[in-house]
Amino acid sequence: MSGNRPASPSRRGLLAATGALGLSVLLAACGGDSGSSSGADDSKSKPWSFTDDRKKKVTADSTPERIVAFTGTAAALADFGLKDKIVGVFGETTLKDGSAHPQAGDLDVKKVEVLGNAWGEFDIEKYAALNPDLLVTHQYDKGSLWYVPEESADKILKVAPSVATQVADVSLTEPIERYAELAESLGADLKSKQVAEGKERFEKAAEKLRKAAKANGGLKVMAASGSADYFYVSTPGPAADLKYFEELGVEFVTPKDVKESGGYFESLSWENADKYDADLIILDNRSTALQAKDLESKPTWKKLAAVEAGQVAEWDPVPRFSYQGAAPLLENLAEAIDESEKLD
């Protein structure tokens, strides 16, 4: 996880306010009711169950039809064919101009209820009013759900069953496959043209990155994020994307002092930003991080060998865990490696 990515709830907690007017009434009406309101003939539906990455068996009388999910999760499930079942999302979803946040993928953000558009935001009253059958999100740390405010988690989890997918300390393909399994259990057709084409693109992109890494053996890549006061250097082990890139042959700079971040990254003051040498820097491209143009005022940034050589590329540290979502990440890194050279 990159430097200024919000820490997981178990490490920093969330800022979301708890409770809402009228919540108790809504919880009483909706809590624990996983029945579908889609209009489907429930008499023909079979009981549904799925064992998630908490080793928790989640059950319902019929297949969930109304799904609320973290925005990136919702986008992944939509890629697997469940777009019409997504009724609500939480997490960065829209930009200031109302357009879709990149994390939303191909979701139509105007057709879903946005329960929160930032870290710590989750409108429990709106959530309960949606009468959801299932809540789905990532899990970075055991015991916490990504973007579900820790302070109000108990109230939120009373409304509907929840499914968590582990996305840290695993390789990129694992959460993709888990979301595919979940989607299939919810009625998605994994043999559809959409899924087949996405998987084919992903496999080709993986091979492209493998060849690029082999052809440029010894090229050191640094995954980093910038803020006003710190330069964060990520370690590949816990990050699903970096871990997979490394498996394909990419050589990463591995920071040594990562304890304070829970093992994800090392925080360097800008005076010490040159602690590690790199031939290529992939820089956190999220709006919460400073971009290359923003870092021009940092003398140590401009003196980094990779920066001087113009070998800086974008990096999206929060992957969309679907074949369609992940393929561009592989393609972009392969291209960046092909266009870089080892620096003395």
Structure in words:
The protein is of the alpha/beta class and about 350 residues long. It contains 11 helices and 13 strands. The strands form 3 sheets. Strands 8, 9, 10, 11, 12 and 13 form a 6-stranded mixed β-sheet that branches. The protein has a 5-stranded parallel β-sheet with strand order 5-4-3-6-7. α3 (about 70-80) links the parallel β3 (about 65-70) and β4 (about 85-90). α7 runs parallel beside α11 (about 325-340). The longest helix has 23 residues, at about 195-215. The protein is globular, with a radius of gyration of 21 Å.
Major sheet size, sense and barrel closure:
6 strands, mixed
Radius of gyration: 21 Å
Q: If helices are DSSP runs of H or I spanning 4 or more residues, what is the number of helices?
A: 11
- Residue share in helices? 25-40%
Shape: globular
pLDDT below 50 for ≥5 consecutive residues: which ranges?
A: 1-44
Q: What is the averaged pLDDT score?
A: 88
Beta-strand portion reads 15-25%
Terminus-to-terminus distance: 29 Å
Instruction: Find the count of extended strands (DSSP E, 2+ residues).
Output: 13
Helix and strand pattern: HHEEEHEEHEHEHHEEHEEEHHEH
Q: Based on helices, strands and strand pairing, what is the structural class?
A: alpha/beta
